[in-house]
Known about the structure:
alpha/beta
Amino acid sequence: AAFFSDGRLAIAREDVDAVVICLPPALHAEAATAAFAAGKHVYIEKPLTWTLEEGTHIIRAEKSTGKLLQVGSQAKSSALTAKAR
Length: 85
C-alpha cells in the first residue's frame, strides 16, 4: 500500500488500481469522479457526498466506467476502535 498527501498523484499512477477517499465530504465528488475517469476503483468514507446532486454524479461516473464503488465507515470497524471500546 502507498500513501499520498496529494490524491491526484495516486490517481495518475498506472500501477494503482483503487483509491480510498478520506477527505471532507464536500470534496468526495470531485475526487471520486476523477478517480473513476482514471479507471480506478473507489472506496469512500461515509458520507458518500455533501449533496444529493453530487451523489448522482458519482453514481453516473461509476456506472460509465464499470469500476467498483464502496462506501463505508472504516474508522468504526477498525481494530484500533475495537480495542478502544
